[in-house]
Amino acid sequence: MAFTAWLVHLYTASGIVFAFLAARAFIEFDYRTGFFWLWVQILIDATDGLLARRLRVRERIPWFDGAKLDDVTDYLTYVFVPALFVWRGALVPNAWVLTVVAAMLLSSAYGFNRTDAKTSDHFFTGFPSYWNVVTFYLLLARWPSEVNAAILTVFAVLVFVPIRYVYPSRTPAWSVITNVAGAIWAGLMLLMLWQYPAVSDLAFWVSFAYPAYYFLMSFALHVRLIRL
Q: How many Å is the maximal CA-CA distance in the chain?
């Protein structure tokens, strides 16, 4: 039924509302609430594609581009709102804010519009603009603002480096491990949100296991694909 297909599109589009709620929270200096809404959107983004495929949404509403809707939502929640937080949360030196934010916004605009941004064998090309995750860790780490600026700049550069990164919900290699570990990591992220601002060192450092696994597996698979 077209009705259920529209419900899936509405589920995806709800991320735009959560982007607004996160932006409002950040502007009001309520960082915990802001990142909670971004966490909710990650959950939606991790599941809406599966629902769309199971319910054959593209077949039922062929004239409506769900992929474009997903990209619009993702750009807002993974890029624009985290960039807003970099400014509001004073993550980088004030003199560098516009430069760093522009690097985030423009590099990701490039990344989102590559024709091979999502490859046919289900990888992302270039750093997949996980700015919501990066900025959350920088908030918790409380490193010097100059260090934050350097880290954000490096990730902006990585958007242009055509390394293939794992698409967690679709890359077939090690998919079960990736998704189970991702679910555990999401729980740790929620725990740290609940603990904020007094986040335990144990939770913080243990949570790094999944990003480390993600990057290492992405690079290993990229090298293997090059050699084929």
A: 54
CATH number at residue 160: 1.20.120
Q: In terms of C-beta density within 10 A (0-12 exposed, 13-18 middle, 19 or more buried), how is residue 177 classed?
A: exposed
> What distance in Å separates the CA atoms of residue 75 and residue 109, rounded to the nearest whole number?
8
10 neighbors 57 (Cβ within 8 angstroms): no
DSSP state of 76: I
Q: What is the pLDDT of residues 67-110, one digit of tens each?
A: 999 999 999 999 999 999 999 999 999 999 999 999 999 999 99
Domains held by the chain: number? 1
Which residue range is the domain that position 222 belongs to?
2-227
Long-range pairs, 40-43, Cβ under 8 A, ≥24: 41/15, 41/73, 41/77, 42/132, 42/186, 43/186
Cβ–Cβ < 8 Å for 159, 190: no
Element (H, E) at 45: helix 31-54
DSSP state of 64: S
| Residue entry with tokens 């290492």 | 216
DSSP one-letter code for 30: -
Per the structure block, which two tokens stand in for 211?
């990003």
Three-class secondary structure assignment of 130-165: CHHHHHHHHHHHCCCHHHHHHHHHHHHHHCCCCCEE
pTM over 0.90: yes
